[in-house]
Design brief:
Helix content: 40-55%
Radius of gyration: 19 Å
Strand content: 5-15%
Structural class: alpha/beta
Shape: globular
Length: 257
């Protein structure tokens, strides 16, 4: 808090919560803004590329609705796989029973793997706990780029994930993206993002929400697909807004035209 008066400009990714926190410690709004995230306007690979990936991985692309799933039960402060694995398995089993969907576990990590990033290992742990394993596929054939992953997500009817960037890939593609989290770290990351899209009802704390209730909401949204255009409109607004911080910073520094 003592350092705030020495900061000329503060840019944050979060659209709601970080800005509110900065206000609380005395930073004026003229010196802060949200930059968003590069993933918001990332150009996805083509639909044809997504189809090629799914076919090469043996994912059934005809008939069944596809639901992309990303799980990672670690973050910088905790490991909650003992709770996350059975919870996620229950949600997915319920969703398969309700919709007949094909669940596709996807990786999100695209840099050199770190010890804490266990995307596919955590996915296999969920898979081992599921009853409806015949309706599960994995994208594990090779390392996929972010544009490829975004294209694959855009090919789906819904995404369920514990990852910020997985949520962004879905929401910015006009695909209903549903968030699960445990603990304060991801509560903070999810709240600002889902608040921007006005979808507080699409994110759940696994300590509180009942898996069957989560599956019911996802099934309804998959069937109705009523919010997709709204997602695209909010994404376009967000991308327009993130040009403002650059102009503001240039003014503070006295550079530019």
């Amino acid at each position: 808090k003592r350092q705030v008066k020495h900061v000329a400009f503060f840019a944050c990714r979060d659209l709601e919560e970080s800005v509110e926190h900065l206000r609380g410690i005395g930073m004026g709004e003229e010196r802060m803004a949200s930059l968003g995230d590069d993933a918001f306007d990332l150009v996805a690979a083509s639909e044809a590329v997504a189809e090629e990936i799914l076919v090469a991985e043996g994912v059934p692309v005809d008939g069944k609705p596809l639901v992309m799933v990303h799980v990672r039960f670690t973050n910088f402060v905790s490991d909650f796989g003992d709770k996350g694995s059975p919870y996620t398995a229950a949600v997915l089993d319920g969703l398969i029973e309700r919709t007949g969907c094909q669940v596709v576990f996807i990786p999100i990590t695209n840099c050199a793997r770190r010890a804490g990033d266990r995307d596919i290992g955590d996915a296999f742990d969920v898979y081992a706990r599921m009853k409806r394993r015949e309706s599960v596929s994995f994208l594990i054939g090779r390392k996929y780029s972010p544009p490829e992953m975004k294209a694959v997500v855009a090919r789906s009817k819904a995404l369920i994930a514990y990852s910020y960037h997985a949520w962004v890939f879905a929401l910015t593609s006009g695909v209903p993206g549903f968030g699960l989290f445990s603990g304060e770290y991801f509560r903070g990351k999810s709240s600002g993002l889902f608040a921007w899209y006005g979808r507080f009802d699409w994110v759940w704390d696994i300590e509180r929400a009942v898996p069957a209730d989560v599956a019911a909401v996802i099934e309804r949204e998959m069937r109705e697909q009523s919010g997709c255009e709204g997602l695209r409109a909010k994404t376009a607004e967000l991308v327009r807004n993130v040009s403002v911080p650059g102009e503001k910073l240039a003014g503070i520094l006295g550079v530019g035209g």
